[in-house]
């Protein structure tokens, strides 16, 4: 059911007040708006778990679940002081799944700035998950013929650069950036693809490097 403007305003303000109630390193537990969204998140997770199809899961996230979190996210980012928020970080991952990369980045900037963590079921450090999820989404889009947003991907790489993570994850990011710019800047593409290969010999870019080098040499 569509929320009224008054309901949306109330959700936004309530989230803003809840987010302002705790500082970095503290918990939002006990804040009404947060507790209500945790209950909703638990219900939504159970619903997603009951769906076998990955494609259908993504559709449900995009069309039915994520719109209900928009006002909470807006209020939380506006009023937040950096306290741990499992709702925000989960929505961030879901937004990547659903192709809302700009929306996911809004949360990623805040979450990395305040050194937040992902809920336990993700079993990865926050920065690693952000880098890997964005890179894999970009590579999947590339396979479908969908253009990769180099600016967004570049920001993700910059945001996650200071973090310690497996070389294979970093390699995926360099591969995705290389693919994003190969049509406009072959030198930069080669730089990223070669770095990807240095980090992971099995990243799958050797033929791309050879193809771009051959085209560059032919162009003189």
From TrEMBL:
User: From which organism does this entry originate?
Assistant: Caballeronia udeis
Q: Report any Pfam family annotated for this entry.
A: Phage_term_smal
* Protein's name according to its UniProt entry: Tetratricopeptide (TPR) repeat protein
**InterPro entries membership:** Phage_P2_GpM
User: Record's superkingdom?
Assistant: Bacteria
């Amino acid at each position: 059911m569509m929320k009224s403007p008054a309901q949306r305003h109330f959700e936004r303000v309530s989230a803003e007040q809840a987010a302002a109630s705790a500082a970095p390193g503290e918990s939002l537990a006990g804040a009404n708006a947060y507790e209500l969204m945790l209950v909703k998140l638990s219900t939504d997770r159970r619903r997603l778990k009951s769906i076998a199809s990955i494609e259908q899961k993504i559709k449900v996230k995009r069309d039915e679940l994520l719109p209900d979190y928009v006002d909470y996210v807006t209020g939380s980012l506006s009023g937040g002081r950096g306290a741990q928020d499992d709702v925000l970080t989960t929505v961030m991952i879901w937004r990547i799944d659903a192709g809302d990369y700009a929306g996911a980045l809004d949360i990623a900037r805040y979450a990395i700035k305040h050194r937040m963590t992902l809920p336990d079921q993700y079993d990865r450090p926050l920065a690693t998950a952000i880098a890997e999820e964005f890179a894999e989404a970009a590579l999947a889009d590339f396979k479908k013929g969908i253009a990769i947003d180099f600016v967004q991907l570049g920001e993700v790489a910059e945001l996650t650069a200071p973090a310690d993570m497996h070389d294979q994850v970093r390699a995926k990011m360099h591969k995705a950036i290389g693919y994003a710019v190969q049509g406009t800047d072959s030198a930069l593409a080669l730089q990223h693809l070669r770095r990807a290969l240095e980090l992971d010999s099995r990243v799958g870019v050797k033929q791309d490097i050879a193809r771009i080098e051959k085209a560059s040499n032919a162009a003189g």
